[in-house]
């Protein structure tokens, strides 16, 4: 985690309405927000989906917190539909579930668990030689997971979302956000988006970092 903390204030710099349509035809409308003052100086986005204003009002009164997913950028999965991960289906699922309940989708520019696009593809080559996703990152001289959720906390605090229900299988997201001043009232797992190409990857996440993923038994 970086030395910056979520107490460093960020502010919404612009909010624009963006209609969204996914490849399967699902459509929703997002209030896309950009920010000044983010700790890493990068261009992260927060998408307000559904009746997020009402969700914030209910949360401030002690009711159910808004549903939030911090989603790490995955060009191969989100854009090109790569089957080597579950990122694209998780993004699509999150957009619909958050729209239904009101909340925020954070699109974080930290490709490949924070190591970048080229390094992620280098790690894929090592995985083809038998390493798992974490071993491959380490073999490249990087951390198993270099993602930092400081900017996620900053964006949430900037829109008044200091209490959230977290849509994620990853317990590290909850731990980091809690340490950064975001109260996670509930962690809700995403669906299991398994394919022949990603089952080994998903098993590594479940066994190595305790992701909440229920997978079929290995044959």
TrEMBL record:
Reaction(s) the record says it catalyses: GTP + 4 H2O = 2,5-diamino-6-hydroxy-4-(5-phosphoribosylamino)-pyrimidine + formate + 2 phosphate + 3 H(+)
Residue ranges constituting the GTP cyclohydrolase II domain according to the UniProt record: 22-189
Keyword line: GTP-binding, Hydrolase, Metal-binding, Nucleotide-binding, Riboflavin biosynthesis, Zinc
GO biological process: riboflavin biosynthetic process
Lineage top rank: taxon: Bacteria
Record carries keyword Flavoprotein: no
Binding site for GTP: 69-73, 90, 111-113, 133, 168, 173
Single annotated GO MF: zinc ion binding
Active site positions, chain numbering: 145, 147
InterPro entries: GTP_cyclohydro_II (IPR032677), RibA (IPR000926), RibA-like_sf (IPR036144)
Cofactor binding comment, as recorded: Binds 1 zinc ion per subunit.
Residues that, per the record, bind Zn(2+): 74, 85, 87
Annotated metabolic or biological route of this protein: Cofactor biosynthesis; riboflavin biosynthesis; 5-amino-6-(D-ribitylamino)uracil from GTP: step 1/4
CDD domains assigned: GTP_cyclohydro2 (cd00641)
Coiled coil: none
Gene Ontology terms: cellular component: cytosol
EC number: 3.5.4.25
Cofactor(s) it depends on: Zn(2+)
Functional note: Catalyzes the conversion of GTP to 2,5-diamino-6-ribosylamino-4(3H)-pyrimidinone 5'-phosphate (DARP), formate and pyrophosphate.
HAMAP family to which the protein is assigned, alphabetical: RibA
Annotated NCBIfam families: PRK00393.1 (NF001591)
Protein family according to the UniProt entry: Belongs to the GTP cyclohydrolase II family.
UniProt-recorded name of the protein: GTP cyclohydrolase-2
Lineage: Bacteria, Bacillati, Actinomycetota, Actinomycetes, Micromonosporales
């Amino acid at each position: 985690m970086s030395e910056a903390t979520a107490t460093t204030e960020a502010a919404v710099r612009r909010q624009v309405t963006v209609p969204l349509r996914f490849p399967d035809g699902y459509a929703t409308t997002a209030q896309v927000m950009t920010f000044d003052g983010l700790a890493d100086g990068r261009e992260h986005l927060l998408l307000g989906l559904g009746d997020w204003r009402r969700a914030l009002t209910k949360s401030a009164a002690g009711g159910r917190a808004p549903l939030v997913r911090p989603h790490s950028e995955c060009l191969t999965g989100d854009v090109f539909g790569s089957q080597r991960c579950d990122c694209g289906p998780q993004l699509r699922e999150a957009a619909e579930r958050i729209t239904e309940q009101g909340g925020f989708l954070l699109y974080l520019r930290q490709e490949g668990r924070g190591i970048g696009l080229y390094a992620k593809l280098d790690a894929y080559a090592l995985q083809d030689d038998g390493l798992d996703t974490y071993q491959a990152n380490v073999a490249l001289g990087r951390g198993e997971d270099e993602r930092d959720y400081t900017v996620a906390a900053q964006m949430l605090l900037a829109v008044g979302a200091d209490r959230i229900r977290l849509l994620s299988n990853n317990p590290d997201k909850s731990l980091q956000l809690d340490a950064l001043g975001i109260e996670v009232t509930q962690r809700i797992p995403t669906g299991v988006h398994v394919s022949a190409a990603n089952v080994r990857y998903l098993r590594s996440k479940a066994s190595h970092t305790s992701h909440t993923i229920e997978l079929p038994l290995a044959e």
